[in-house]
Design goal:
This protein is an alpha/beta fold. The protein has 15 helices and 21 strands. It folds into 2 domains: 267 residues, 3-Layer(aba) Sandwich (Aldehyde Dehydrogenase, Chain A, domain 1); 179 residues, Aldehyde Dehydrogenase, Chain A, domain 2, CATH 3.40.309. Bound molecules: nicotinamide-adenine-dinucleotide. Nicotinamide-adenine-dinucleotide (NAD) binds next to helix 7 and helix 8. This is Aldehyde Dehydrogenase.
Length: 484
């Protein structure tokens, strides 16, 4: 009998089976074969994880520890992640067919999430304000308690670390529920946290499905914060569950990003980023530039060059050194993307290049659609695959209207060499992030999140601090002669 690698829950600094011994298979999407087994949580396992995190918060050293000591431990975890970077990347590439070079990049960004928030909590401790009434008032940012973090499969380690890092840095204890398709790198992160010397219960990993593993966390009154990244529909369910206990939620949800290319753009640069924006990670990116708007005067030229660049991407198995693009992360997801590609022509559009591989694999080639009515599902809904709909426009006002005419509002990109236009259009776009002449670059001090169906709240820098702490105002009398 084949022995498969096993990934358990991490509860109280031990890697354990589920109480009922249940496991599920995790599949390598490139080979379409099972490659590992994972503990499958029931509500009873969630109960164990919550009890562990609760006890660690109420009685353990973590929330009471000096900020420098906590930062040192988090940096030690980051050091271990760097030492094991290849292994962490290999787990993500195996679990979801992410090209290995991209998975390595994700590990580096994950390490940076930990290092950034370790230092941020140490250095951004609060503000003191002298008052005219003869008092001083200051803000204190104390940890909120137990954080339930629920993450998606498209950037398994990076999305999980984006939630875990600020949560624990600010002195909370955390339970992470990774996506069921891609749990391996997050379990390994839990193992490394034990090795780094984290106290028991600070970082618990609970594996399993949305229901019951995730839902057992979001509706529990012992959980003080819920941070979620995933689909907008799931976000609605989670917000409803958390509302029963008035638990604050942070929701990072889907997107349908507009990518606008003006006639005065640097076309080489715009083509480069348009390709990255929709074909990186096979388009399985919330920030994907899935609606591309090209100004009429350069439409034909841009489209020809964009098509050529898309066709030049090296498609292959995730671990080959030159692979830039691989298959989709699961059969279920492939079938979803396929249903959009299959119906392009019946909805009135044309596939300029790409389409399904039709070889039994879960590969959808870099796909460019034109001539699609603006009411078509491919234009309106998040496909979350390597499929872009291209449209043309005449005026700035017209394209701003088109870009904003969506239920989502996560991000937008624009390409222009006109400085005034860059500022004006950025300001008028309905989006949490706007990239001008670039894409995907982030400074972790800035807010990250979305408008409308793309989310609730912002994370990053002080925005994460506001969410993961209970800010308190303390007012001190300084001058006894002055009474308010
Ligand atoms: P998903 O909503 O299906 O699942 C996300 C997580 O939620 C998984 O861990 C899943 O098990 C869990 N879950 C499902 N049902 C649940 C429930 N009832 N209660 C608690 N947990 C539950 O999303 P996905 O398919 O894994 O991820 C893709 C989606 O994520 C896309 O819509 C994408 O745009 C979005 N996303 C957003 C961002 C962002 O920052 N805004 C980043 C990455 C991905």
């Amino acid at each position: 009998m084949t022995e498969y690698p096993f990934f358990g829950h991490i509860i109280d600094n031990e890697e354990v089976e589920s109480l009922d011994g249940k496991r599920f298979d995790t599949i390598n999407p490139w080979t379409r074969e099972k490659w590992a087994e994972v503990a499958e949580a029931s509500a009873a396992d969630a109960e164990r994880a919550i009890a562990s995190a609760r006890k660690a918060f109420d009685e353990g050293p973590w929330p009471r520890m000096g900020r420098t000591e906590r930062a040192t431990l988090i940096h030690r975890l980051a050091d271990l992640m760097e030492e094991h970077a290849d292994e962490l990347a290999r787990l993500d590439s195996t679990d979801m067919a992410k090209p290995f070079a991209q998975a390595k990049h994700d590990v580096a960004r994950s390490v940076w999430n930990f290092r950034f928030f370790a230092d941020h909590q140490r250095d951004h401790v609060g503000e003191v304000m002298p008052m005219d009434s003869g008092h001083h008032t200051y803000t204190e940012y104390g940890p909120a308690g137990v954080v339930a973090a629920i993450s998606p499969w498209n950037f398994p380690l990076m999305m999980a670390s984006w939630k875990i890092a600020p949560a624990i840095a600010w002195g909370n204890t955390c339970i992470i529920k990774p996506a069921e398709d891609t749990p391996a790198s997050v379990v390994m992160l839990g193992r490394l946290a034990i090795e780094a010397g984290f106290p028991p219960g600070v970082l618990n990993v609970l594996n399993g499905f949305g229901v019951p593993a995730g839902s057992s966390l979001t509706g529990d009154p012992r959980v003080d914060r819920v941070t979620f990244t995933g689909e907008s529909g799931t976000g609605r369910i989670i917000m409803t569950a958390a509302a029963q206990n008035l638990t604050p939620v942070s929701l990072e949800l889907g997107g349908k990003g507009a990518n606008i290319v003006f006639e005065d753009a640097d076309i080489d640069n715009a083509v480069h980023w348009a390709v990255e924006a929709i074909f990186r990670n096979a388009g399985q990116v919330c920030l994907a530039g899935s609606r591309l708007f090209v100004q009429a005067g350069i439409y034909e030229e841009f489209l020809a060059r964009f098509k050529e660049a898309a066709e030049n991407l090296v498609i292959g198995e995730p671990f080959a050194a030159d692979t830039q693009f691989s298959c989709l992360a699961s059969e279920e997801h492939y079938l979803k993307v396929k249903s959009y590609v299959d119906t392009v022509e019946e909805q009135g559009g044309k596939i300029l290049t790409g389409g399904l591989a039709e070889d039994g694999s879960w590969l959808v080639r870099p796909t460019i659609i034109t001539d699609l009515p603006l009411t078509a599902t491919q234009y309106c809904q998040e496909i979350f695959g390597p499929v872009v709909v291209v449209n043309t426009f005449e005026t700035e006002a017209e394209v701003v209207h088109l870009a904003n005419d969506t239920a989502y509002g996560l991000n937008a990109m624009l390409f222009t060499e006109n400085l005034s236009r860059a500022h004006r259009v950025s300001s008028n776009l309905k989006a949490g992030t706007v990239w001008v002449n670039c894409f995907f670059i982030r400074d972790l001090r800035t807010p990250f999140g979305g408008v409308g169906d793309s989310g609730v709240g912002r994370e990053g820098g002080n925005f994460s601090r506001e969410f993961f702490t209970e800010p308190k105002a303390v007012v001190m009398q300084i001058d006894r002669q002055v009474r308010a």
